[in-house]
Amino acid sequence: MVDLARKYADRTHFVHARICRVLPDGDFKESSHLDTRLIEIVRIFGTRRPGVPMRVDHAPLMLGDEKMGYNAGYTFHGRMLALGMISGVMAAVNTELLD
């Protein structure tokens, strides 16, 4: 994905941030939004397409969410955690780019 971000950054108008780890059997699992690959992708877009809209995708299940009937990956508290993570990444990258 990092290579694709580099290749298509100038033609990208919206980033849907989702990071997965591929398991040995070929299945995949959502990863943390603090994954170093996603941080590099934010850095690429911060450099080449500053201001491009970004949103998180699936988020972890948080304590109490299992009782709320949410669809897996779309819990309120998990999405707020993911938004906080990506906002922090974006703030750190923006500070880095200003130095």
Count of alpha and pi helical runs: 3
- Tell me the strand percentage band: 5-15%
Task: Give the spatial strand order of the biggest sheet.
Answer: 1-4
- Provide the succession of SSEs: HEEEHEH
Topology, number of strands? 4
User: Could you tell me the radius of gyration in angstroms?
Assistant: 15 Å
Overall outline: globular
Low-confidence segments, ≥5 residues, pLDDT <50?
none
- Based on secondary structure, the structural category is alpha+beta
In helices, the fraction of residues equals 40-55%
Largest β sheet strand count, sense and barrel closure: 2 strands, parallel
Assembly category: single chain
Work out the count of structural domains: 1
Distance between the termini: 26 Å
Kindly state the mean pLDDT as a whole number?
86
Account of the 3D structure:
- The chain is an alpha+beta fold and 99 residues long.
- It has one domain (2-98).
- Helices cover 43% and strands 12% of the residues.
- It contains 3 helices and 4 strands, in the order αβββαβα.
- It has helices at 2-8, 36-48, 76-98; strands at 15-17, 20-22, 28-30, 54-56.
- It has a two-stranded parallel sheet. Strands 2-3 form a two-stranded antiparallel sheet.
- α2 (36-48) packs across α3 (76-98).
- The longest helix has 23 residues, at 76-98.
- The protein is globular and about 45 Å long.
